[in-house]
Amino acid sequence: MLEVPVYNTSGEQIDTLKVDEEAFGGTVNAPLLKQAVVSYGEKRHRGTAATRSRGMVRGSTRKLFRQKGTGNARRGPVRTNVMRGGGMAFAKRPRDRRRKLPKRMRRAALKTALLAKMLGQDLLVLDGLRIDKPATREMADILKNLKINRSCLLALGDRDRNVYLSSRNLPDLSVSIVEELNAFDVATRQKMIATTEAMQVLLGQGGEGDESGEVKA
């Protein structure tokens, strides 16, 4: 059994939550986690970069001068890549870089990412997160009390507008509800905070997600 610390907003540990690692796969599947991170990362590439090759540039295909006897370096038509205004060598083409992962693999990757955070003691549970009105200072003070000064992912059980607005100006803090969690967001943040409501959903569902690979509340 793993022991996950439970803190209040003042940074005091008030409890310890016991988690069965078997509910999250038992062991960290590093190859699967890497495959999921690469897949999610590739989806962020737009894949629209394009340059014109020599076949796409306007101009004559006539050789500028004969190959030998002129004293000049041998050169082809004006559309060659060594000429100003010519086409690009190895021109870029738009392409789709997405790598699809089956639903079961996405679910398993999320579980193993959460398990890795718990084994590394990089996940903590926050109890009593209540923000009455948007205030960046209040959220910054909570992170300071928890001694978190690195990139962090805050998982909420349900959408909270005040928490979102209080966190958007903090560059190292990302906020997500449980339904939108994925292995990439969990693995690429140094720390993770889960509210008590979010942790109940994660433990109740065992990290299971919907068809898009996200956790389903």
Topology of helices and strands:
Blueprint: E1 2-8, E2 13-19, H1 30-43, H2 103-119, E3 123-127, H3 136-145, E4 152-156, H4 161-167, E5 173-177, H5 183-187, E6 191-195, H6 196-205
Parallel strand pairs: 1-3, 3-6, 4-5, 4-6
Antiparallel strand pairs: 1-2
Helix pairs in contact: 1-2, 3-4
What would your notes on this structure say?
The chain starts with a strand and ends in a 12-residue tail after the last helix. It is built from six helices and six strands. Strands 2-1-3-6-4-5 form a six-stranded mixed β-sheet, with helices on both faces. The chain has two domains: 150 residues, Ribosomal Protein L4, Chain: A (3-Layer(aba) Sandwich); 44 residues, no CATH class. It is an alpha/beta fold and 217 residues long.
Number of strands: 6
Helix content: 25-40%
Q: What global shape is seen? A: elongated
- Estimate what percentage of residues fall within beta strands: 15-25%
Question: H/E series, N to C?
Answer: EEHHEHEHEHEH
**CATH architectural type of the largest domain:** 3-Layer(aba) Sandwich
- DSSP helical segment count: 6
Detail the poorly predicted runs: 206-217
Q: Alpha-carbon distance between the termini? A: 23 Å
- Average pLDDT figure: 89
Give me the Rg, rounded: 26 Å
Helix/strand/pairing category: alpha/beta
